[in-house]
């Protein structure tokens, strides 16, 4: 049977371990790193391709013959609410994440300065201060009031607050934005919930942009509002893209990474004993956990040969980043968490022109947060069996919904 004649598979989602990708990826990567994939709605006539090998993944993500345009890409999972037909719309002005060149790089250049390694380094004192504030508050919790949910008390508010300070989003706007962006991160919601969330987010950002024109500050949105390079509509959508991408991802890495370290005490102890290991530890946690569990999708603009398979123009290609990051051709014993291993080449932030613009900020937050967490809360441990930690299999990004913890010492 040729590839074109094979019955397309659904996107694997079933996990046997909270830290490992679905086991089905191992077989696919070894036997068929580019395999027919069942699409649920959108372009592609019901069939696309699933890429699980790291070499093939890098090839797709770095090749301009594969488009990131929203209107060209079919979905490998069911849409949030039932619909008979679904045609994804083109990206709105400013929503650069779902665009190709030259529009993508035109918008991206406007924000890159604040997200470079040098730009993010200037935020380290603020990140450290905010981290210490949240940990001090947690540490004051008396034993009688424990366990504490580390997601809501630390992993969620820390990156949200850092991102909001960087963009210039005030506290009064932060909470409603967080609530409604979180709803859009679910895999299911109603039409009414969608309308309400989009309305609240849109109105809040429009008001915020108006303020940035009249009362600019030292922040990214003020920078953009004072120039004439973008319209207000574009600025609202740039802000939406950055907040939507920044709120959810680092939160899940902080929570899931902590969960993994609690369940791998020898690695946690190594990080405590060798603080100079923190940079590599963050990269290994990114590789090992890879929270983008639904894949990075592209659409072929022309016929392309990939991994011995002919991808036709118009086909949707879904790159499984978790599977690629467990490729034994790149990483020895890839299913083992090893904070000291070489992590060069992992794809947790994607690859190519669309590699995550906020990657340096996410790294900086994790480099501060993980060591500070274990130093401030001695004897940190789960307060429930690991099997009872609720996993975010129902969300666009993988992680944990809650992480109940306790620790040694009095408040």
Q: What does this protein look like?
A:
With 411 residues, the protein is an alpha+beta fold. The protein has a single domain (3-406), classed as Cytochrome P450 (Cytochrome p450), CATH 1.10.630. Helix content is 45%, strand content 8%. A hairpin with a 2-residue loop joins β6 and β7 (309-311). The termini are far apart.
What would CATH call the architecture? Orthogonal Bundle
Shape: globular
List the uncertain runs.
Answer: none
Rg, please? 21 Å
Which bin fits the share of residues in helices? 40-55%
Task: Look up the CATH topology.
Answer: Cytochrome p450
Strand neighbour order, sheet with most strands: 1-2-8-5-3
Instruction: Output the structural class.
Output: alpha+beta
CATH superfamily: Cytochrome P450
CATH classification class = Mainly Alpha
Average of pLDDT: 94
Summarize the structure.
This protein is of the alpha+beta class. Helices cover 45% and strands 8% of the residues.
How would the blueprint of this fold be written?
Elements: H1 24-31, E1 34-38, E2 47-51, H2 54-61, E3 66-67, H3 103-115, H4 117-121, H5 124-139, E4 148-149, H6 150-155, H7 157-167, H8 171-184, H9 191-214, H10 220-226, H11 232-263, H12 265-273, H13 278-289, E5 296-300, E6 304-306, E7 309-311, E8 316-319, H14 321-324, H15 359-376, E9 381-382, E10 404-406
Parallel strand pairs: 2-8
Antiparallel strand pairs: 1-2, 3-5, 4-10, 5-8, 6-7, 9-10
Helix pairs in contact: 5-7, 5-15, 7-11, 8-9, 9-10, 9-11, 11-15, 13-15
């Amino acid at each position: 049977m040729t590839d074109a004649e094979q019955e397309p598979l659904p996107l694997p989602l079933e996990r046997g371990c909270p830290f490992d990708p679905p086991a089905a990826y191992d077989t696919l990567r070894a036997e068929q790193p580019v395999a027919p994939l069942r699409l649920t709605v959108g372009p592609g006539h019901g069939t696309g391709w699933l890429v699980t090998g790291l070499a093939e993944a890098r090839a797709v993500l770095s090749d301009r013959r594969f488009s990131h345009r929203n209107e060209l890409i079919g979905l490998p999972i069911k849409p949030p609410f039932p619909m008979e037909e679904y045609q994804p719309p083109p990206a709105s002005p400013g929503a650069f994440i779902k665009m190709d060149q030259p529009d993508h790089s035109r918008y991206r250049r406007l924000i890159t300065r604040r997200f470079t390694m040098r730009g993010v380094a200037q935020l380290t004192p603020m990140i450290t201060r905010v981290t210490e504030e949240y940990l001090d508050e947690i540490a004051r919790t008396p034993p009688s009031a424990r366990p504490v949910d580390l997601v809501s008390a630390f992993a969620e508010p820390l990156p949200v607050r850092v991102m909001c300070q960087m963009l210039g989003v005030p506290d009064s706007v932060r909470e409603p934005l967080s609530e409604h962006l979180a709803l859009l991160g679910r895999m299911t919601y109603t039409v009414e919930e969608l309308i309400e969330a989009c309305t609240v987010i849109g109105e809040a950002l429009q008001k915020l942009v108006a303020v940035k024109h009249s009362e600019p500050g030292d922040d990214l949105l003020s920078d953009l509002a004072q120039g004439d390079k973008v319209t207000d509509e574009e600025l609202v959508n740039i802000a939406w893209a950055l907040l939507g991408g920044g709120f959810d991802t680092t939160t899940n890495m902080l929570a899931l990474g902590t969960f993994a370290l609690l369940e791998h005490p020898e690695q946690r102890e190594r990080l405590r004993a060798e603080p100079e290991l923190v940079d590599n530890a963050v990269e290994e946690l990114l590789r090992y956990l890879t929270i983008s569990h639904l894949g990075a999708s592209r659409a072929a603009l022309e016929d392309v040969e990939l991994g011995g398979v002919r991808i036709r123009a118009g086909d949707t290609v879904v790159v499984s980043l978790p599977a690629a990051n467990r490729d034994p051709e790149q990483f020895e014993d890839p299913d083992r968490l090893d904070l000291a291993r070489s992590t060069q080449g992992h794809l947790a932030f994607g690859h190519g022109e669309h590699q995550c613009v906020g990657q340096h900020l996410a790294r900086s937050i994790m480099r501060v947060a993980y060591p500070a967490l274990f130093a401030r809360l001695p004897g940190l441990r789960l307060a429930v069996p690991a099997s009872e930690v609720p996993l975010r299999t129902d969300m666009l990004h993988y992680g944990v919904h809650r992480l109940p913890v306790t620790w040694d010492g009095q408040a």
